[in-house]
Amino acid sequence: MKAFVVIPTYNERENIERLVGEVLAQDACIHVLVVDDNSPDGTGAVVDGLAASSDRVHVLHRAGKLGLGSAYREGFRLALDKGADYIIEMDADFSHDPAVLPLFFARMGTCDLVIGSRYLNGVSVVNWPLRRLMLSYFASVYTRAITGLKISDCTSGFKCFNRRVLEAIDLSQIKSDGYSFQIEMNYRCVEKGYRVGEVPIIFIDRHAGSSKMSKKIVREAVLMVWKLKLGSLIGKFLPTGMRS
Predict the structure, then answer these.
(1) Alpha helices of 157-237 — where are they, by DSSP H?
(2) Fold annotation for 3-242
(3) Which residue in 102, 58, 108 sits closest to 82, CA to CA?
(4) Starting at the edge strand that comes first in sequence, how are the strands of the sheet with 57-61 ordered?
(5) Which of 6, 168, 212, 222 is disulfide-compatible with 75, CB 3.0–4.6 A?
(6) Which residues are CB-contacts of 174 (< 8 A; sequence separation ≥ 6)?
(7) Where are the domains positioned within the chain?
């Protein structure tokens, strides 16, 4: 088994070396792929140094800040090309605990996508202001209500895909970013009949640095839910050969 943990970065120099070390320590099957958007603080150079000393560390340098969704799409493709059996999404700031990775792998025998959920057993979020917590929690409630997804945490960015899921999804058609990227990937997985499981996690907001969130990301997620729902309704009336 070969697992690739895809970690998008932008100005994560203070976290990345320790994070990579802790991720690799979880299992000898794990590789780390950092997708760096030309971080001004030199994150990419730090990872280059790590990659030079370990064949389990890989880095994809991009020209600039091109967005989370595109970082994951490019990272997924590269991980697949390198023979990954499992591909994991993970934040660079220690909001996601590397110790959860073995729990993902334990569930992959019966699931095609395993999501680390902040809301599976109540609310497990630390250091978020109430407004942001409510926004995240009710985004999942809203998404479930409109799309019918049976997932407690629809916007989680900590998850593990079986490679067959990413091979089946046309990544070139996934244009969304941020919260909406997570929602769309979950939806496409379920739409294609793959099995989804969840494991409870505790999300601890940034140990270092500053958080990244914008109104644009929230607005895009709200619209994405309706886009997916309407696309599903229209698809029911199309001839089989015309459905995606």
Answers:
(1) 163-168, 178-191, 215-235
(2) Spore Coat Polysaccharide Biosynthesis Protein SpsA; Chain A (3.90.550)
(3) 58
(4) 57-61, 30-36, 3-9, 86-89, 159-162, 113-117, 196-200
(5) 6
(6) 69, 73, 181, 184, 185, 188
(7) 3-242
Q: How many CB atoms lie within 10 A of CB 13?
A: 19
Q: For residue 206, what are its two tokens?
A: 């940034």
Tokens (6 digits) for 19: 């994070």
pLDDT recorded at residue 59: 99
Report the alpha-carbon distance of residue 178 to residue 222 in Å, rounded. Answer: 12
Secondary structure (3-state) at 228 = helix
Strands (E), the chain: 3-9, 30-36, 57-61, 86-89, 113-117, 125-126, 159-162, 196-200, 203-204
CB atoms within 10 A of CB 55: 8
Q: Which long-range contacts (CB under 8 A, 24 or more apart) does 169-172 make?
A: 170/244, 171/73, 171/76, 171/77, 172/73
**Phi and psi dihedrals of 9, rounded to 5?**
-135, 145
Task: Write the DSSP symbol of residue 115.
Answer: E
Instruction: Answer for the pair 90, 158: CB distance below 8 angstroms, yes or no.
Output: yes
Identify the bridge partners of residue 7 per DSSP, sorted by sequence position: 34
For the entire predicted model, the pTM comes to 0.89
State the pLDDT confidence band at 217, using cuts at 50, 70 and 90: low
- Closest Cα partner for 185 from 146, 220, 215, 224? 224
The residues, ordered by sequence, that sit 6+ positions from 21 with a Cβ below 8 Å of its Cβ are: none
Report residue 234 as tokens: 């229209």
pLDDT of residue 215: 63
Q: Which of 197-201, 213-217, 221-225 has the lowest mean pLDDT?
A: 213-217
